[in-house]
Amino acid sequence: MLRARETEMIRDDKINRMLDASGFDDAAKLLLDCGYPDMSGMNMDQIESVLQKRRADLFHEISNFEYALALLDLFRIKYDYHNVKVLVKSSGANVDASYLLSASGRIGTKELIDAFTTGQYADLPAFVASAIISASGILSRTGNPQLADIDIDKAYFGELLSMAEDLKDAFITGYVKLLIDSANVRTVVRAVRTGRDKDFLKTALMHGGNIEPEQIASSYEEDAMAPFSTDALENATRLGVEAMGSGAQTRFELACDNAVLSYATDTAFISFGSTPVFSYLIKFEWEITVVRMILTGKLTGILPDVIRERLRYCHV
């Protein structure tokens, strides 16, 4: 079923036609044969509502297949941790940021808010509960939201890797490990650009990837990109060296995303098992991101070539 649906997903030719369309309405109408409603005439909030509903509808449909629930949770989990960041940091700043919460996670937003407000975390996943308590404590002690973010990211990647390993699927575990490597190479580049020392890097790096934090930290001051010179991250590593100097950081960030997408979506000849479901969900999330970037870019008058430079590409 999902393989058949892939034939309706946007491809490079559709992306280019949308980018080159004369205006927003023409670009939006090109999505009709991909199963999207007519979004011409909509504003940014309305576009976002359509895209969120499309994701919610797919997640609900796939949740009806019991064997796919664990795979689906691998995608829902990032929205849980996004919501944890919103709650922890908005509480620290004493502002109401509930409008930023996502309904796409495993945990209902009301359930999460109630647990956060009352301090009763028994019904939450252990990793999530621990992240709330730890990050709230860090923010209270230091007043530094970046350190709270890092702590929450560690919980996210820790639970994500645990979930992947429980599936006993080498392909999916490989994806998560590459995702962690991608996060770490970004951290190294940002640390160099902002003049951070090795002690900060040790705090900020994520565990569980193909490349251990100790190895990354040990070469930081001599050749920061050396540990990441793998086939999957070859292009990202090259652009990372440039980004640490005067190169464009956008191209480096794109290369990191594209490395993960390339690994996760090059699965056309795998017809059975968990891989086709997992691959479809990755492609689906990618498509939602691309549609959002193009339509909001068109709506705000961003030039097509500028939008094109920011797009992530994957094989559909």
Task: Explain what you see.
The structure is a single chain. The protein is mainly α. Among the domains are: 78-168, no CATH class; 172-257, no CATH class. It is built from 15 helices and no strands. Helix 4 runs antiparallel to helix 14 (274-299) and helix 9 (170-193) runs parallel beside helix 12 (234-244). The chain is globular, with a radius of gyration of 20 Å. The two termini are 15 Å apart.
How many runs of DSSP E, i.e. beta strands?
A: 0
Helix fraction by DSSP (H/I, runs of at least 4):
55-70%
The chain-level mean pLDDT equals: 93
Helix-strand category: mainly alpha
Shape: globular
The radius of gyration over CA amounts to 20 Å
Query: Any low-confidence stretches, pLDDT <50, length ≥5?
Result: none
How large is the share of residues in beta strands? under 5%
- Outline the biggest β-sheet: none
Order of helices and strands: HHHHHHHHHHHHHHH
> What is the first-to-last residue Cα distance?
15 Å
